[in-house]
Amino acid sequence: GVPEISARLTRITPRNLASNVVQGGRHFFLEQLVDLDFPDTSGPFTQLVRVGRLTGRAAPELVLGLEHVPGGVLVSTLEVMVLERGSTGYQPMWSHTMPGLAQDIALIDLDSDGTGEVIALSGYEPLTGGGRQHNLAVLSASGAVRWSPAIPLVVGVVGSPRANRLGFTDYNSDGVVDIASAVERLQVRSGLDGGMLLDVPFSSFFGTW
Q: In 3D, which of 161, 110, 163, 115 has the Cα closest to residue 137?
């Protein structure tokens, strides 16, 4: 089958216009899959790359997590962009924006209906201070928002809001894959409607920290 690829931006190096040269790493690609030609300095910046099957087409879809950082604004915007393979390479199908830094994106068929979903997690420190805000969205293969729960402000938390990831399991054995997120608390939400199945602080497992 087609191998799946996950990637995260680790370093920004000066642009080299020669397509056969890659600075700061090895070149594993046999062909160019997509070139969105964003400005080098103002973004958006690609933070996450995922490859998987959303629609059942012969070629897998490509999902990018793009961060837009407007000049002078501390709160960035995460754009989830889905691209499909065409005769001339990958072209955008749809995109969805949400506030915050890119934390994690996953492609998974939550309800086993043969059509995948895109799950995105973002987070940021509000300009007003006082804690950290997170956003979770489950998007259908067409780009529609299936559900997007409000995650309360985490008061008194400081530090990098990137240290959060998504996990997946059928927590309540109902045949639907549920979504676990590590956002200062361990939370598990129903993949069906986003209902909370588990919500406990990490101190329940590791003690006070």
A: 110
